[in-house]
Design goal:
single chain, about 350 residues, alpha/beta, D-Maltodextrin-Binding Protein, domain 2, five-stranded mixed sheet, 13 helices, 11 strands, globular
Length: about 350
Amino acid sequence: MKKIVKPILVAAVTVISAAQVYADGPKKLDVASTFGTNNFLGQVAVELGNNISVATGGDVSLKVHEPGDLVPALEVFTSVSTGALPAGWDWVGYWSDIVPVTKLYGSLPFGPTPEVFSGWMWEGGGLEILQSAYDPYNVKVLPCLMNAQETAGWFNKEIQSSADYKGLKMRISGLGAKVIEQLGASPQLIPGAEIYTALERGRIDATEFANPLVDINMGFDEIAKYYYFPGWHQSASWMSLIINKDIWNEYDELAQKQITLACKATLQRSMAVVTAENMKALNKLKDKGVDVRRLPEPVIQDLKNAWGEVRQQEIKDNPLFAKAYKSLMSYQALVKEWDELQEMPRDSED
């Protein structure tokens, strides 16, 4: 009897041990970033890693790799999906050819404020819709950075009317690309690390990338004359940590909650610092002689009209986009009603 029982006990202990290892998940996640750590968008991935380490008591950490070190930037999603890489750090809109609804999360023209977008994502159903689109690709998504409203971009010629977009070769991504296409422009999708060279060599005439806090480290002011506002094409946009779901499921429930908590903390801090830091960076660019301008109001209106056409086509062609857009607009209307009730003159120092 002892000879029979003993192997069973050993086998049971082995199974328990294996289950415990499986529940704990990997201690270190290699993360392929689509942004360099020389700018804010990449630096936040490092900060997220620090927050995860704190939240998990050092049990989980991230190793953030520069763009191209592991795979080309625009192959990160596919690599995470197949399990070739455990994790990535991205701009959600990069994957719109694979997951069309990410257009809305990455760059919604004339969309809501970052505060509204953030509330909808985490508390209004936005994350559930996005995750449902990622599930078929075996990818877990954690939106951990909300980038504030961008600029209209860097241009080598003045934009005096919407006719100036005709024939313009511009690096721009997402739904904004479809909008300027309506005005006769030629949009180009170019990863961040390659934009400077493309602009310098004349492959493109203009580019948008992010906002002053990020752009100041990209060197665009060296080769572009005009810096236009507002960022009509991207009022807010998401960067996320994506993890292969097989890897994610190896973590127990506590570790998953700790990682999610670290993600939310990273989001909160980024939203707290970005507006003031953007203005500081913009003032530095002005001091360097950058010509900062606002697009003429008729141009903004023409862009908005073009967006209306693009939006209706997206709603018609993509049921999940239609669902997400309706959900976001309902959430925004709810918040707007509250804001209107609370509207009052605000104190300020002259």
